């Protein structure tokens, strides 16, 4: 049987080396290339036409893993993209899925889960880490409390200590619109201050402190 052709993209050389060593002992999966950034993985996939790309989200410099995923899926012969990351915030998951990722796994998972996910992705099946799937189902059960992408973006800026005027400038919206968004955020999170909103959002992993 023809092995699944895999390309690994991660900006940490040690992580890439570990993944290559891991897959070297697994029958039916062949790593045909590795990339350290988003632009490189797009070029590599266009040339090698892998079945699956294992994609980290947080890439240093250039485009991130989400944008790279979108570019990969726009290729004439697109690979399936399987996200492998440390982060499981709702914002990261939503962006990856919206970009067309076939699956979302956490680096804390087991090698067996990773092998199975690569095979599932190559076969066109969707793969989600159990923790991610559970939170997605929870959000579906409470749709009225789900934060929009813009609300998450504003929360992320709040967590960095950015004021209303600067938020408005960065997002090209009015300060009145920022206040409206804040009202919606407070209502959905059941809080009434910026500090509480950031605290609850962090606790629920809706945002990531950087």
Describe what you observe in this structure.
- With 210 residues, the protein is an alpha/beta fold.
- Helix content is 52%, strand content 14%.
- The protein has helices spanning 13-24, 38-48, 65-73, 90-99, 111-122, 130-141, 149-159, 164-171, 175-189, 194-203; strands spanning 4-9, 29-35, 52-55, 80-85, 103-106, 127-128.
- Strands 2-1-3-4-5-6 form a six-stranded parallel beta sheet, sandwiched between helices.
- Helix 7 packs across helix 9.
- The longest helix has 15 residues, at 175-189.
- The protein is elongated.
Keywords:
6 strands, elongated, 10 helices, alpha/beta, about 210 residues
Mean pLDDT: 89
Main sheet attributes: strand count, strand direction, barrel closure: 6 strands, parallel
Dominant shape:
elongated
Number of strands: 6
Q: Strands of the largest sheet, in order across it?
A: 2-1-3-4-5-6
The ordered string of helix (H) and strand (E) elements is EHEHEHEHEHEHHHHH
Strand content: 5-15%
What gyration radius follows from the Cα positions, in whole Å?
Answer: 19 Å
Given as residue ranges, the uncertain stretches (5+ residues, pLDDT < 50) are: none
Counting helices, strands and paired strands, the structural category is alpha/beta
Helix count, DSSP H or I runs of 4 or more residues? 10
Estimated helix fraction: 40-55%
Distance between the termini: 45 Å
